[in-house]
Design goal:
Blueprint (H helix, E strand, L loop, with lengths): L13 E3 L4 E3 L1 H7 L11 H16 L13 H4 L2 H20 L5 H17 L16 H12 L17 H19 L7 H23 L3
Antiparallel strand pairs: 1-2
Helix pairs in contact: 4-6, 4-7, 4-8, 5-6, 5-7
């Protein structure tokens, strides 16, 4: 049996359709959907996906505050709160349009975005393959974060002050912790999504009241 194309040490037991080469199971796991845009028909991708999703949803953060929602610490910072709003808006809109969109889907979309930020865009694409995003909601969150701008005195969507990757990742982590906290391990429910509905409804009401009270 030949050696793995990637590490050149272990036995190559898996034929990789992206590279057209053979990999060992370890290298397959390290590269899969991280440095390689795997085709949906890959058997190893299909076998791995349920395990990976379960691992993401089951991951706990012992440092998360217990007396309040994990997200509350970033909401005390107006700059990060504005970014958090842009992260959650696509999730809220998706949940509103699609009743089957669950807390699990929201967490996986946020994890997808976090993974992109941590690993960058260096990924191998397969010539001739359809490069449709692996997580369309996650891509919507990415686009919303990318367009988010903040100014110290006035919030402007077209401002010049963007956000660092570290700030984006911190917000994503806190929002994921909040979603898991509210889901209470029932990730097929919509406890977090319902909270988003309430949160955005309150902001809309406050905005309408402000317009009414402001002299014309």
């Amino acid at each position: 049996m030949s050696k793995c194309f990637q590490c050149r040490q272990k036995k190559a037991k898996r034929a990789c359709p992206a590279l057209g080469r053979e990999l060992c199971p370890l290298c397959c796991g390290l590269l899969r959907d991280k440095e390689i845009h795997c085709p949906s028909g890959c058997r190893y991708l299909a076998e791995h996906k349920p395990y990976q999703e379960k691992r993401i949803l089951g991951k706990k953060d012992s440092a998360a505050p217990r007396s309040s929602l994990p997200q509350d610490d970033i909401l005390k910072d107006n700059r990060l709160a504005w970014l958090a709003l842009h992260i959650e808006a696509p999730l809220m809109e998706t949940g509103r349009k699609n009743p089957s969109f669950t807390d699990s889907d929201a967490v996986l979309a946020l994890e997808y975005v976090k993974g992109k930020l941590e690993k960058g865009q260096n990924i191998i694409f397969i010539p001739g393959q359809d490069h449709k995003p692996k997580n369309e909601v996650g891509e919507a969150v990415c686009a919303s974060m990318e367009s988010c701008r903040y100014e110290r005195s006035v919030i402007l969507s077209g401002g010049t002050d963007g956000y660092k990757n570290e700030e984006k990742i911190r917000c994503l982590e806190r929002i994921m912790q909040t979603a898991k906290y509210l889901a209470r391990d029932n990730f097929q429910g919509r406890a977090y999504i319902e909270r988003l509905f309430e949160q955005f409804a309150q902001m809309e009401d406050a905005s309408r009241q402000s317009k009414i009270l402001t002299p014309g």
